[in-house]
Amino acid sequence: MGGSGGGPYALVAPEPRKKEDTDSDVVKACAYALPSTQLKGAAVLAGVGPPEDSSFSQMRLGTRLLYAGLRYAPSLVGAVANVLVGRKARILEPEELKGIMPHLKYLKAVVAPNERELLENPYFIMGMVQAFQEHFRQGPKGFIRDGQLLLEPWGFKLEDIPFPGVRLYYGSEDINTPPQMGRNMAAKLERSVYKEYEGETHKTLFGKHGDDILRDIAGPVLIPASDVELRSSGAYDLINATINMRKTSIKRLCRTT
User: Fold this and answer.
1) How many alpha carbons lie under 13 Å from residue 143 in its C-beta half-sphere?
2) pTM (2 decimals)?
């Protein structure tokens, strides 16, 4: 499963890297090269579509400006991001960063207007602290390159992916990766399953529906076993164990807030 900017990575899989390969070449190695014994399922969670997708125009203005900057002035974007949050993320301790995070202009820029209530959520803030510290741990170059890769041609068409049944999950109020982006991809993927959650945004989708999404992803992998066979095989135990691990992680976040 790949979410947001990780969505394209759920549809591709790197082949063994050759000495002459660039980062872009590795990202473009197609998922259809994977044998079925190695790929049992694939899911995209509010993922970014191919750069030629027309629904990029439906993204909120801030996201479009960021992508324009990454395309035409990456050094400037990196310098601004480093000043606004990068240096703080590298210097401050997590608790210190958590205290100032809701007031950072950079965070207010990446959080959409319909998600501003999340700035009052301690779990969300702690998650952003961890994300920003990883983003900028070695400076802004990795942050820039990661964004640039999303804007480069994938090197294959969605129609060329032979793996059937890719599952896509989007929120109806997502203005970072608009649901139309998911619909467009679903229409080109063989026997894909598209699910849209009414009222959810880019950052609330998995937080509110993560358990259901995990079960939904695991279900097709276990078919055609009957419900009785699933229970006797321990498959449900595996699904529930994954969900419990997710809940345990949330509880640990609670203890740090």
Assistant:
1) 24
2) 0.77
